[in-house]
Amino acid sequence: MPNPNQNTSLTDQELSSVVMTTQDRVQLITALDAFEKSLFAPGRAPEFRNQLQQLPADFSVIIKKAIAPATQAGQNPSPTLISDLLKKTRDQLDTLPIATLLLAYRPTVVQVRELATFLRGAVSDTILLSLKYEPAIVGGFILECNGRKTSFTIDRFLNQLTKTE
Amino acid sequence: MISLETMYFLALLFVLVLELVFAVTLFMIKKTFDKERKSYSQLFEATRSHLTEIVSEATEQSKTTVQHTMDTHDRILRDLDHLSTALEKKTELIVQNMSAWEKDTIQTQLTTYSDTLSKETQNSVLTLKATVTDQIQKLDQEIAHTIRDTQQQLKLSMKDAFAASQQEMVKYQQQKIQELESEVNTIVNRVAREVLAKNLDGTDQHELTKNLLQKALQEGEFSDDA
């Protein structure tokens, strides 16, 4: 008999390897919701494997890992147990730390990955990057992280330059 | 039993007797009063006559006394006049009969007395002069001291006023400098923003962001104790 209090076997590192930004997190939560909804659809058997195949590969891997404690118990896992594990995964996603970066431009996907990778190396390997476009910034960025706000904008450097002169 | 008429008669009789007694009493009182008044009038007249006599007598005596005093005074004055004349004559005789030595002695004494008086007067004048000089010197000193104090206070006041005006000037200059700096900053920032906004594309912005992130990392902005 599966234990309803069973935790997922996902680590924060595993989650954050797929979810680098808050946008990724929203997409994953949407996928988790859709997957959970399909389990309880009326007149359909909980064939979760078919559903998993329809998701992006990295999301599929994450969900498989998340519900592993239920699937390992038997061939027909309880939808309630799977739902519980999915909820715990969502909760775990919510606990990941966030660093907000206000930028003067709208970065491409590749550029976002670059920035997220840099911040993970500098701050924490599980941190999620939240990006915001701020037209008032001419160049540079403002970083909000761990309750601190750091400005590395052109405005700041210009002001420093004119003050020291 | 006494009748009503009898009672009325008796009452009338009683009233008549009462009136008679009252009239007799009044008469006796009036008589006594007249007698007393006469007696007092006589006494008053006698007293007034006596007093008039006393006053007349006293006036006479005063007149006599005053006359006597005036006479005595005149006599004393006459005696003094006689005495004075006699003394003068006597003095003249004494001076005439004086020896040359006695005259010299008196002259010397008079000269000595005069010298002494002169010296005392001179001393007094000198003392007074010294006192006045001393007072003038003190006054001079006080005036000089007051002038010095006033000059000192004036200098200090002028110094304070100058310092205050200088401070105001420095304050004004600093304020103007700040205003100018602020204006320059505004202009520089605006120009820099315009230039950067025109010349930086997305790739440049990304490179700039990466460089600044690297700079922040080097400056320790991401460390726990930053």
**Main sheet properties of chain A:** 4 strands, mixed
Q: Give me the number of helical elements of chain B.
A: 3
Taken in chain order, the helices and strands of chain A follow as: HHHHHEHEEEH
Strand element count of chain B: 0
Termini distance of chain B? 154 Å
Distance between the termini of chain A: 75 Å
Strand content of chain B: under 5%
Low-confidence stretches of chain B: none
Q: How many strand elements of chain A?
A: 4
Q: Which range does the strand content of chain A fall in?
A: 5-15%
Rg for CA atoms of chain B: 66 Å
How much helix, percentage-wise, in residues of chain A? Answer: 40-55%
Largest interface: A-B, 28 and 24 residues
The coarse overall form of chain B would be: flat
Largest sheet of chain B: none
What's the average pLDDT of chain B?
86
General shape of chain A: elongated
| Secondary structural class of chain B | mainly alpha
Round the mean pLDDT of chain A to the nearest integer and report it. 82
Class inferred from helices and paired strands of chain A: alpha+beta
Helix coverage percent of residues of chain B?
Answer: over 70%
Give the structure's gist in a few sentences.
The complex is a heterodimer of chains A (165) and B (226). The mean pLDDT of chain A is 82.
Walk me through this protein's architecture:
The complex is a heterodimer of chains A (165) and B (226). In chain A, strand 1 (98-103), helix 6 (109-122) and strand 2 form a beta-alpha-beta unit. The model of chain A has no long low-confidence stretch (mean pLDDT 82). With 165 residues, chain A is of the alpha+beta class. Helices cover 53% and strands 15% of the residues of chain A. Chain A contains 7 helices and 4 strands, in the order αααααβαβββα. Chain A is elongated and about 70 Å long. Chain A has a 4-stranded mixed beta sheet with strand order 2-1-3-4. Chain A has helices at 12-18, 22-39, 48-53, 57-71, 79-94, 109-122, 154-164; strands at 98-103, 128-133, 140-145, 148-153. With 226 residues, chain B is an all-alpha fold. Chain B is 93% helix and 0% strand. The termini of chain B are far apart. The chains are: A alpha+beta (165), B mainly alpha (226).
